[in-house]
Amino acid sequence: MAIYNRHKLVFWLQLVATWTVAVSLFGYIRHYGWTGRYGISPESLIEPWFDVSVGLILGTGYFAIELLMDRQFFERLSFLRWAAVKLVLILVLMLAFFAVAVYLYPFMNPSVTDDVTLREFLFSKLMFLVLVYISLISLLITLFQRMQRKLGPGILGNMLLGRYHHPREEERIFLFIDLRSSTSIAEQLGHVAFSRLIQDCFADVTEAVERHRAEIYQYVGDEVILCWKPAQGSRNNNCVAAFFQFVDTLAGRSDYYQATYGLQPFFKAGGHLGRTTVAEVGILKRDLAYHGDVLNTTARIQGKCNELEEQLLVSAVLADRLQLEKEYTLREYPPVELTGKQENLTVIGVQRPTPLSAG
């Protein structure tokens, strides 16, 4: 929870900083490029206290809108409907801000001698300029966030910096999460309903991904592949806790799944740690790709879940890097044969302790 709250705090600070810079830039354009007053002194727009104050207010308001739009009800809307709702909320925020600003500004800046009403300001050229400018800034923020969502947390920054323009070998934790009995479920529901089920399940994994600092590598059919750098994945057992939070989210929405699909989806997972090569691939559609034996091994470990009747299996290599004993019940299996692997591998079943029944 602390990590998730810190993530929100960082996001809020980023929005406040972005809007502070945007207000400051607008102030310089307004001061040096257009001197029409409309009751507001252009000189005050380039004062640091003004920029920071407005940036704090707009950034906080925008942050509240983002939290609201992140709710699953809005995320399930089409992009055009989602964008329309967000635009209306931003316009309401701006109008409320301008109404308060027009009323309070003469008290904060006694040098203003010309009175201006809210109506005059709303229909002024300055208001039109402000709305266009704020709309452009909001659009840029939205596009940046959508690119981050499309590529996954942390990937956009690495691609902009060219970190993986040339292949690099790094250590990663991988977690393959797969829908159990997917073939029979697809036959039961049909392809369209099955696709909606997968959409719902992968939407429900979002909170676990964000809270436990995971990177979504790929969606492959009914499987999602998460990965972490070792420091992030091992901290607070993130790579294991993320899976069980996803399980809890699905269980908490069991009424929805039963009513909509007539079943409760269950997922199994396999985790492993190893060296992998990371590189940007593609020209028309660029993406980060991971190559190496660690991916094949993780997939094979996950494939043993049904045979060993475990919901989560991890390699001994990964378990040694985590602190699982205090939170989970572990069951170590003798080295098992993995398809396509010459050497057998020790795997460990990870379970949460069953609560003692009262009385």
Can you lay out the helices and strands and say which pair or pack?
Blueprint: H1 2-33, H2 48-69, H3 72-75, H4 79-108, H5 118-122, H6 125-151, H7 155-160, E1 168-179, H8 182-189, H9 191-204, H10 206-211, E2 215-220, E3 223-228, H11 230-234, H12 238-252, H13 254-261, E4 267-281, E5 287-291, H14 293-303, H15 305-308, E6 312-315, H16 316-321, E7 329-332, E8 347-351
Parallel strand pairs: 4-6
Antiparallel strand pairs: 1-3, 1-4, 2-3, 4-5, 6-8, 7-8
Uncertain runs: 37-46
Q: Would you list the SSEs in sequence order as H and E?
A: HHHHHHHEHHHEEHHHEEHHEHEE
Any idea what the radius of gyration is? 26 Å
Broad CATH class of the largest domain: Alpha Beta
How many structural domains does the protein architecture include? Answer: 2
| Largest sheet, strands/sense/barrel | 8 strands, mixed
What structural category characterises the helix and strand content? alpha+beta
CATH architecture of the largest domain: 2-Layer Sandwich
CATH homology superfamily of the largest domain: Nucleotide cyclase, GGDEF domain
What is the helix tally?
A: 16
Number of strands: 8
**What is the oligomer described by this structure?**
single chain
Span of the ends, CA to CA:
31 Å
User: What spatial form do the alpha-carbon principal axes imply?
Assistant: elongated
| Beta-strand content estimate | 15-25%
Question: What's the CATH topology label of the largest domain?
Answer: Alpha-Beta Plaits
Look at the structure and give the mean pLDDT.
80
**Which percent range fits the helix content?**
55-70%
EC number: 4.6.1.1
Keywords: Lyase, Membrane, Transmembrane, Transmembrane helix
Organism: Neolewinella aquimaris
GO molecular function, one term: adenylate cyclase activity
